[in-house]
């Protein structure tokens, strides 16, 4: 009897972890997420963001200091021919966005973006830190 309780607790804990950690998705709601990798070297950050099925004109990137925001709009262009009717559509349309904070401010004037084959690549050079100066009071 003592072994049943811990086993039940583990199942219950796993259920709660799965519910609160993983996003809830309903069967008839397609999923569109911006999944990304962020890499850093001494001079810049490089971001690769997967945004398939979006035209580059519908992707917007804003930079405010060290805060980077990516948003995209997916538009459904339905084409039906005479005598056809849509039985099921699993293609998503709508807006999606994602923002993240970097450890260092970005040099906005040198930042660049490229979109190819559903992957957005951002090159975000780090802003040179201004050296602080301590004033001597005379």
Topology record:
Blueprint (H helix, E strand, L loop, with lengths): L3 H18 L13 E6 L3 E7 L8 E6 L2 E8 L19 E8 L10 E5 L2 E7 L13
Antiparallel strand pairs: 1-2, 2-7, 3-4, 4-5, 6-7
The count of β-strands is: 7
Overall helicity: 10-25%
Shape assignment: elongated
In which order are the strands of the major sheet placed? 1-2-7-6
Walkthrough of the structure:
The structure is a single chain. The protein is mainly β and 138 residues long. Helices cover 13% and strands 34% of the residues. The chain contains 1 helix and 7 strands, in the order H-E-E-E-E-E-E-E. The chain has one helix at 4-21; strands at 35-40, 44-50, 59-64, 67-74, 94-101, 112-116, 119-125. The strands form 2 sheets. A 4-stranded antiparallel beta sheet has the order 1-2-7-6, with no helix packed on it. Strands 3-4-5 form a 3-stranded antiparallel beta sheet, with no helix packed on it. It is elongated. It starts with a helix and ends in a 13-residue tail after the last strand.
Short description:
The protein is mainly β and 138 residues long. Helices cover 13% and strands 34% of the residues.
Features:
138 residues, mainly beta, four-stranded antiparallel sheet, three-stranded antiparallel sheet, 7 strands, 13% helix, elongated
């Amino acid at each position: 009897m003592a072994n049943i309780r811990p086993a039940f607790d583990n199942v219950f804990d796993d259920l709660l972890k799965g519910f609160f950690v993983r996003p809830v998705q309903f069967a008839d709601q397609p999923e569109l997420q911006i999944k990304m990798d962020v890499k850093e070297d001494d001079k810049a950050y490089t971001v690769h963001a997967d945004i398939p099925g979006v035209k580059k004109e519908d992707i917007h990137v804003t930079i405010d200091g060290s805060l980077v925001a990516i948003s995209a709009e997916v538009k459904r262009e339905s084409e039906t021919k005479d005598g056809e009717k849509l039985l099921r559509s699993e293609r998503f349309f709508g807006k999606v966005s994602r923002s993240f904070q970097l450890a260092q401010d970005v040099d906005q004037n040198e930042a660049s973006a490229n979109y190819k084959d559903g992957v957005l690549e951002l090159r975000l050079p780090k802003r040179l830190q201004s050296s602080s100066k301590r004033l001597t009071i005379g």
